[in-house]
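Protocol step 6 of 9: fold each sequence in the batch and record its structure tokens directly after the sequence line. For illustration, a two-sequence batch is reproduced in full.

Sequence one:
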Amino acid sequence: MKRLERENSWIGILDCNNFYASCERVFRPDLKGKPVAILSNNDGCIVARSQEVKALGIPNAVPIHQIEHLIKQHNIQVLSSNYELYADMHRRIMQTLQRFFSGVEVYSIDEAFLDFFPINDAEEAEEFARKIKATVETWTKIPVSIGIARTKTLAKVANKWAKEYRNKTGGVVIVNNEAKREKMLRNTDISALWGVGYGHRDKLRNLNIQDAWLLSQQSYTWARKLMTVQGERLVRELNNEPCYDVENELKAKKILITGRSFRRDIADWATLEGKLSGFCADNAARLREQGKLASVVSIYMSTNKFNPNIKLFRESMSMALPKPTSDTHSLLQYTLALAKKMLGSTTQFPPIKKATVTFYDIASTDQRQLGLFESAQDGTSSKVKAGSRSMNKRIKPKTTLALPQISDESTHKQNKLSKALDKINQKMGKGKITWAKEDSQAMISHHEKLSPRYTTRTDELPKLR
């Protein structure tokens, strides 16, 4: 029975406090109480901060070179992102939760929604949450906070209070009466509310709606008109009307994206082609692993926005494929054709600092919808329509890209080849065999301050001498 069909049921959200920094501290007790900053791929900017770094006023996503003086002044411990460690710690936490809850929805790497059914009593739910908090922290050493309410949105608000006032709350807050709900909403800025993006935030502030309480007092019709049906659901949830259930099953991904900020700007086509091919091949391999097909390919490229000596270039371009596919060979041709069209020239173009390759409209191999006059055996067109979006959001006219003819026979052979490469790389190690255009190092990030992967690499464990 779904939770939305039950009355007086509680829903919670568990959030790991400063997750990346906390994972590092599990194996480095000497970092406890010290400011810790985690860097992005290639050690370019800060992507995660401990509470001590946040207290210094250092924002997220700031380039590391801009705060070198603060790092020295406050002795900030700077580490490369250790995603293998973080993913394994995430797995351990989720496995712990699944031992106690029948409904666990993994929301992100450091968050999960929890279904408290059949617990209906508020005191019992809070007591159980404190038991879960203590268990997770004992078994994994990761500090967590838990917010509990009748709806997901209110649970997120409660979790925020549990984290900010953890010395008073003990890291657990439940919205169990109207007075508490009103107090929390009045003291929750509209920008901190789950489901309110920048666009809606500005609209609401222009209407003098500054906090979650004022938003909750608006009519459902008004909310739907201003913020679509999602806005109506948001207001309903703020008023204790559940609109979202705890989803036990992971939803199929509708998008696959791979990209990097490069350590050095790329101004030659051979190098850029290798990077883009590597990103494309990685996406294609994941498509086949999931038994999926991509219908749209998109690329994004930009120069270094922090370099005042060059004009900012930031463009994206997408194309709807003639036929959904997971064939690496075909996807490489589409991706590189888009890149060439975007740059205009392969001999002279702006120095590229960041690039991504994205596949949209992901569908299962048995769910592909054929066109009105198309059969499953039809060949692929040699021309496709592409559109681009510039940095000023102006849509450019659609452009026709001419591609080599890709026949059914060729596609069938290439699919067999791609699957054969997948098997070899799975057995011998990722990247053992690559496509000729592919940069085998495209997916490798430079981590000069990487800590050991304590839980997954036995050769990186400390050695006693």
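Sequence two, same batch, same settings:
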Amino acid sequence: MLEQTSREFIQRHRLLEKGDRLVVAVSGGPDSLALIHFLHALRDELDVEVACAHVDHMFRGRESYEDLLFVEGFCKERDIPFFGERINIPELMETEKGSLQEMARKARYGYLRQVMDRYGGNKLALGHHGDDQVETILMKWTRGAGAKGRAGIPFKRPFSAGEIIRPFLPVTKAEILDYCKRERLFPRIDPSNSKDTYTRNRFRSRVLPFLKEENPHVHRNFQQFSEESLEDEEFLEELTRVKLNKVWKVEEDFSTLDIKRFLQMAQPLQRRAINLILNYLYKLKPASLSSIHIYDVLRLLKGENPNAQLDLPSGLKVTKAYQTCYFHFGNLSGGPYYFELGIHSSIILPTGIRISLMPSRGYVQDDGGETIHLNRDGVTLPLIVRTREAGDRMKVKGMEGSKKLKTLFIDEKIPLHLRDRWPVVTDSEGRILWVPGLRKSVYDTGEGREDSLVLQVKSNHLLGGS
């Protein structure tokens, strides 16, 4: 019987506690109508308060408005506080992007949050049942959901200032219909629930009957799978967080992953780590994102190509640069820059690096940067600080002849996106004097003289040694 099964489920998972203020989302259909009737009947026994919230999405004109009036009347007969709202989803579709179902869901949950606040509710009860659970898990598997997504519908989860609870997950649609019949409830029927246009309806009409033929209690096995999967996932996710915190760093415009240390993690933790990163970076997770993308990222990280990029939904890019992986929206490198630098002056580059030029007389070395010394008569002022250009060559200190900057970047394993914003210092005649953080040129005298110049760079995380 529905009453006993649901009551035991509520007790086992502590879905309701003394003093709770429940808001029950009621469409007027069998599931939600049975749920509010059931919870209202238990209110004194459980010492909880029950209110009702209904949203008319205005899909079916007068018919959907009559659903609202029906639910309102049902609550009035039983002195249940009622909150109702009409939201014109078809009209919103003309000005906002998104699918009809996504927009309706967003509007519905937005209104339910408002009701929770106005009523002072701490629990939102929804009418999902065991058949819904079976359909959801099968849909997730078919689509390719990530680790936690494969577990289906959780029996409770955080929502607003409280929780969403689903007391009917252990019972079937048939049991709900039987309850409605026994309690003389006459729910409204939404004809769209029988249309094969929607994926869920196709699973409901074609797959679920076959499974129930094989095992009438199949929903119990799916619910057990869901609960055990969520427990396992919480444990593995916590392990993953501990490991991930040591290899992943979040910057202002991007985040970085230490590939070598990441790949030392166990394979199950790697998958979950990528999922955690994507969940963090997406403010609103795209509907098109699936486990396929997690495996795409893993293939990128394990691939032999030292420089590679992957485009994920909604503009998120994953850029591999040797042993570092960058997650970012938009381009990493930024545009080219060009600055002139005179004596007794400093500039701050778009990358945050400060470069200063001063006479060596009176200069005191500090620990905050690196320097080269230039013969005042051997260079033409002002100096130029710019990004790289095609054909750039540098006479590297300690080497014969000149070397292409492109070769220098490759030898030093500088990521592609950093090469386009790395500072190159030349004199006014175009002679490259220094590529800070990489190599010094033959123009560096190595020490200060009375008439020489000191070029100092105060670096950030983008530059390494000299």
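Proceed to step 7 once all outputs are recorded. Observation for sequence two: The radius of gyration is 32 Å.
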